[in-house]
Amino acid sequence: MAKAKTQFICQNCGTVHTRWAGKCDGCGGWNTIVEEDPMGGIGSGPGKVPKKGRPVTLTSLSGEIEEAPRIPTGMDELDRATGGGFVRGSAVLIGGDPGIGKSTLLMQAAAALSRKGHRVIYVSGEEAVAQVRLRAQRLHAAETDVLLAAETNVEDILATISEGKRPDLVIIDSIQTLWSDTADSAPGTVTQVRTGVQAMIRFAKQTGATMVLVGHVTKDGQIAGPRVVEHMVDAVLYFEGDRGHHYRILRTVKNRFGPTDEIGVFEMSDKGLREVANPSELFLGERNAKAPGAAVFAGMEGTRPVLVEVQALVAQTALGTPRRAVVGWDSSRLAMILAVLEAHCGVRLGQHDVYLNVAGGYRISEPAADMAIASALVSSLAGLALPADCVYFGEVSLSGAVRPVAHTAQRLKEAEKLGFSSAVLPAASPELPKGAMGRWSEIESLPDLVARIAG
Ligand code: TYD
Ligand code: MG
């Protein structure tokens, strides 16, 4: 008899190794590799008779298919992140740290859809039905017709959700609790999670129901993370936030039916998640404009402008190697800005610790924040507060030149709406609106900016 082939699969990123190793080459995680049987018993049994398909031309389809049919939840922030609502027949993965609020968000979405007459089934593998109901009560969702089931076996779940009228939306909370009779590995392993998710996706495609899959981000590699199924689903959303803050951000990282750069912003309260229509007001809420080292960045998230404060602290150190600590921004990007300040602007930071923080637990991913960061750093070093009514944006290149960024007009409009009256932005910015904001200073290079701030 042929020896059963097993594989060694990283539970964090899904990389397949031929032998066990302590460290995964794919993601660098330690102790994340587990031996699994990839076929898991599938494939034995009599051969299947192949079915002949019929390819169709693209033109014959024109007029037939307009837009992907969607079910909007009516929760604007959630609909924005999904691109206008859940697409029928699609599978959506919602990942996030344990305890961040995934179950809360989905219970609220389920209740909202149920109130609109949709049939929603919430399958919980983590909590008993009574516990789920308790949460629903707290969210004022208990009086809705959301159907609850506490199951973890894939075959049982399929039997449960296939019964009765076809559901519009099925929520599986979570994929890590799924286990199938057809896969031999232990529950929570990559093989089990993939087999379970595959079955759920097949159900969605066959019935036209939307499948929402919850996945916990795992750090220790004991159970498979959501990344191992990202390639299988139609859309991937991550629910992020800082435990110390109430804001939660739903970020789209993959979407076959919509944009990927949108975010939905929520605030966690004792009655569940509250939508935040204007995130800038929230992020600027705790602002202390008179302190040196703070600059307001006029950023963009997808189609929406977001203003947020960046805070820098530059302090003299006696240590041989000064510290650089960043929260909410890319640390290699900070290293670059520091290098440009040293090389082209004569700003000496070799004897200084540098701490950088983005207010409110928010994360900036745009290079357009370079100018705001540089301004905050120089302001802290010089001990001079920046003007309170000014916003900053622009990308800095290694040569010290400042480059224009997209959406100038929108950034300025949002800043004006929130009471700012001036802006520091790249020279030759396109689409500079006439008379939108009173004053703006066009900056050509980083040395220009430093001279402006430090006088
Ligand atoms: P939960 O949705 O269970 O997180 P996840 O499913 O991502 O693991 O949310 C857990 C946290 O949210 C928990 O610490 C309590 C808090 N919470 C509130 O603050 N208000 C609420 O109304 C609810 C339901 C939860
Ligand atoms: Mg949960």
From TrEMBL:
Entry annotated with the keyword Nuclease: no
Motif (RadA KNRFG motif): 254-258
Sites where the protein binds ATP: G96, D97, P98, G99, I100, G101, K102, S103
TM stretches of this protein: none
Keyword Oxidoreductase among UniProt keywords: no
Lon-protease-like: annotated span: 353-455
UniProt-listed InterPro entries: AAA+_ATPase (IPR003593), DNA_repair_RadA (IPR004504), P-loop_NTPase (IPR027417), RecA_ATP-bd (IPR020588), Ribosomal_Su5_D2-typ_SF (IPR020568), Ribsml_uS5_D2-typ_fold_subgr (IPR014721), Rubredoxin_2 (IPR041166)
Keyword tags: ATP-binding, DNA damage, DNA repair, DNA-binding, Hydrolase, Metal-binding, Nucleotide-binding, Stress response, Zinc, Zinc-finger
SMART domains linked: AAA
UniProt superkingdom: Bacteria
Domain RecA family profile: 67-217
NCBIfam families: sms
Notes concerning its domains: The middle region has homology to RecA with ATPase motifs including the RadA KNRFG motif, while the C-terminus is homologous to Lon protease.
Function: DNA-dependent ATPase involved in processing of recombination intermediates, plays a role in repairing DNA breaks. Stimulates the branch migration of RecA-mediated strand transfer reactions, allowing the 3' invading strand to extend heteroduplex DNA faster. Binds ssDNA in the presence of ADP but not other nucleotides, has ATPase activity that is stimulated by ssDNA and various branched DNA structures, but inhibited by SSB. Does not have RecA's homology-searching function. Plays a role in repairing double-strand DNA breaks, probably involving stabilizing or processing branched DNA or blocked replication forks.
Family: Belongs to the RecA family. RadA subfamily.
Name the record gives this protein: DNA repair protein RadA
Originating species: Sphingomonas psychrolutea
Gene name of this polypeptide: radA
